[in-house]
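U., I forgot to send this yesterday:
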Amino acid sequence: MQALMVVPGLRTLLPLGSPQQVLTQEVAGIPLLARVVATALRAGVTDLVLIWPAELEIAIWDECCASPALSGMSRPEICPSPFDPRKNLSWEALAPALMNEFLWLPWNFITDSDTLAAVERSRVLPLSWERPVLITKPGFGRSLRPGVTSTPPVEGVSVQSSTDITKAECFLAGKTGNPMDGIRSHLNQIFCRPAVRALVRTPITPRVVACTGTFIAIVSAVMYSRGSYWGYVAGAMLFFASGLMDEMAVMMARLQFIENAFETWAEGFADVITRLLVFSGMTVGLYRQRGRGELVLGIALIAELALSSMVKALHRRAPTPDYVLHQYSVRTNQLGHTAIMGSEPSRR
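Result:
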């Protein structure tokens, strides 16, 4: 799928501040332009046409491209000519560079990749160009008339000020859930959102947060192993805190586009180690309190955890190759759709 993004000129940017500051201001730790493009790439965009004003330094765009979120992106086709989507002449001049169907991508509109991938095709041109819209190319040269459509507006936030950045980060934090996350994860995400919004503005990485969660789990296991009432209470509270830390690490990785095969493997490995430590601590604590009879139940619980973890790992590997292991949930949903409907969901 092709996308068209038009960066405004100085007349639009100067009232908002310095052009470089406006275009590279960070939203959840990612420069604005880089986040908009990175979201489009994860929504299925493979080709980008960029309208860049001649009065702006191209170094601003190069700075955005240096973001890790855009690593591996091919160089877009950059057109320096002025462009006004409300004028026929602008579309006629750009027509050779456009495919028959393309996504209008506003330069300052923040949304998530799932929402962007679900944008429906519009039969008429929009009255407002502030939100993404999927447009067909035929007819530009003959009649360019905007109209009202029944398609619901795309969810997201147009960033114009620092207040909008806060709204955009709140919106993104609420969209970090995964379709295969359980009820517990969804509840934990609600508790974690304020902390995640604060952490993504700092140099703290998801891996640091995950390691902190593992350390807390070790302390939880030690408290469980004491075999006392208050030891169990402290262990349970620490184990819950460890789970929140792991959830925050996952949310931060999704917000900052750090998801990859290694991170997914590390997340699963840390989760298994955490549970093994806690269950081992429980077994030791119950052994101290009640005797050898509890060892049988403890060993059975640990064996069940090991077996379930192996099955889960095989399920992740089955539908996806190693280099896209982090996309296992997407592929699993597609396979489920195939089994029920007889065909995979269409892709643009």
